Amino acid sequence: MFMKTLRSLRPLAALSALFAAITLSVSVSPSVRAQDAPKPAPSHVVAGTPADSVAFANAAWEVTDLGKGAEARYAQVRMFDSVQSISIVSYPARNFRTGIVEGEGMTMGETVVKRGHANHAMHTSVLAKAGGARFAVNGNYFNTKLFTPTCYTRIGRRVFGRTTAKEVFRTNGIMVIGRRGHKMDIYTCDTLSYDATTSKWHTAIAAGPMLMEDGKVITYSPEQIRTTESFYNWRHPRSLIGYTTDAKGRPDRVYMIVIDGRFPGQGEGASIAECACICHLLGMTDAINLDGGGSSTLWTDETGVINHPYDNKKWDHAGERRVPNILIAR
Q: Are 263 and 311 in contact (CB under 8 A)?
């Protein structure tokens, strides 16, 4: 196992009283029955029961201390009537600089590689090392042939991608980050408002769907997702990012999360509703879904790849997919 240090899961134990049952008015899916064919869910199933909350809080979390208040956690948890393989990196926003590494050109002002068709796309771990990251999670959606972002992505004045029409069904939010990487915000934003609402921020990355905003779980009605149910309600590998806030409403602790999927009995994946439930159990106030599937990868310089990336369809840590950008902390 990747972890080097095993200790009691103090943050979850201390907050266990807060892990109330969460009822979401959206559909969730049953266990995956085949690695390459996630199954649809019955309608109007509850995501997050009291038993799920207890299972999450009492899971046998393996925890690695990453220094400066940061830590990595991993556990297989039986919840949502399935086996959830959950990897988490969390860190104090004030102690680390959060940002984006973009394979085409810049990372927080530093050149990584020049654009050259697919040559500028690399594994999350490779991009993270090139950007001097301590921790990293894969970024937003992209064209798998050209390896260019298909969602709005900006670092400084340079825009690397615009949200395409095909991504509108799931890209309804944005994460913005200040120049120094300590201030940030995640909020609902339509494709016509990116430039106006992000103009005062150094970095912006669009993704979605939104999972939590201002402490509230975002729900999606059957009517809203009628033509995209397989994405929202079926179980898939998922990547998420979000944070808790302090008494003044400022981002306090940042969470990078990957939920493994398409591995029956080992890591069965999560629906969007189940992702939101996990964010709520962690006490997050704002969170957004990132690109998932074979792209989902969580890495630290201490542990290497924590989760089990699906791109090689093997239950190991070697199945990373090349991606054009990642979110990092350093």
A: no
Give Cα separations from 164 to 15, 148, 171, 238 (angstroms).
Answer: 40, 11, 9, 21
Q: Taking every pair of C-alpha atoms in the chain, what is the biggest distance, in angstroms?
A: 52
Q: CA 261 to CA 237: how far, in whole Å?
A: 4
Q: Is 222 helix (H, G, I), strand (E, B) or coil?
A: coil
Average pLDDT over residues 45-65: 90
Q: From 88, 35, 22, 100, select the one nearest 59 (Cα to Cα).
A: 88
- pLDDT of 120 reads 72
Strand order in the sheet with 158-161: 158-161, 153-155, 203-207, 173-177, 184-188
State how far the alpha carbon of 244 is from the alpha carbons of 75, 204, 223, in Å.
21, 19, 30
Task: Kindly report the backbone phi and psi dihedral angles of residue 71, in degrees, each rounded to the nearest multiple of 5, phi listed first.
Answer: -155, 155
Query: What's the number of CA atoms in the CB half-sphere (13 Å) around residue 232?
Result: 27
- Whether residue 16 is predicted with pLDDT greater than 60 in this model: the reply is no
Alpha carbon 200 to its chain centroid, in Å, reads: 24
pTM of the model: 0.86
CA–CA distances in Å: residue 264 to residues 100, 145, 235, 270 = 33, 29, 11, 12
Residue 205's pLDDT band (boundaries 50, 70, 90)? very high
Instruction: Check whether 207 has a pLDDT greater than 90.
Output: yes
Q: pLDDT for 74-125, tens place per residue?
A: 999 999 999 999 999 999 999 999 999 998 753 443 444 454 444 578 999 9
